[in-house]
Amino acid sequence: MGGNNHNTEDRGWWYIHGEGLEKKFVSVFSDRLKLDAKINPAKTFDKTAPDLIVDGVVSDLKTQNTPFFTALRYGILPKYAVTFNRKDYTRYLNKYPDIDIYFWVDWHQTQWNGETVDYLGGVYKVPFRTLASLIERPAPEHHYKRRAVAGDVNAKSSFILDVREFETLFETESRG
Q: Which of 168, 60, 66 is nearest to 124 (CA)?
């Protein structure tokens, strides 16, 4: 994420990193997108609580800075592919069916293993019920090889989705 090479399995570190991104999202996009966004007060005592309250709706933020370079295998252009893990899908289905999901995309890395993806930056909104229907269509699911043996902490798989099926709140195809 963000050109960060930190271990993807270090969940504690990513929680702290994510808190900084949540604060940045609120400070950058509240005015720019005319959103009444704030950090969810429940996060002070539950790190797994949804990240935000946006326009009075409990919401979660998914920040993605590295494209899913192999998304074409699943029929989605890598430029527009985002991931949503199965563990969150199950949790939201049971606990937060009315949540909104915000995807903050900013491709920092656009080359990997001989593949190049055109830059994309933007903020996209999707109500969880819509996201669930896209997943149940069904959406392609990618299973992580390393996580299959890493215990039960991180999600073992993610659904691959196309941000063009979400509401675009902001989008740019050039950095800056």
A: 168
CB-CB contact of 104 with 171 (8 Å): no
| pTM exceeding the 0.70 threshold for the entire prediction | yes
154 vs 85: CA distance, rounded Å: 9
Asked if residues 36 and 59 have their Cβ atoms less than 8 Å apart, the reply is: no
Number of domains in the chain: 1
Query: Could you tell me the pLDDT band of residue 173, with boundaries at 50, 70 and 90?
Result: confident
Q: Is residue 3 part of a domain?
A: no
Print the domain residue range for 111.
11-172
| Distance from C-alpha of 157 to C-alpha of 95, rounded to nearest angstrom | 20
The answer to whether position 128 is within a domain reads yes
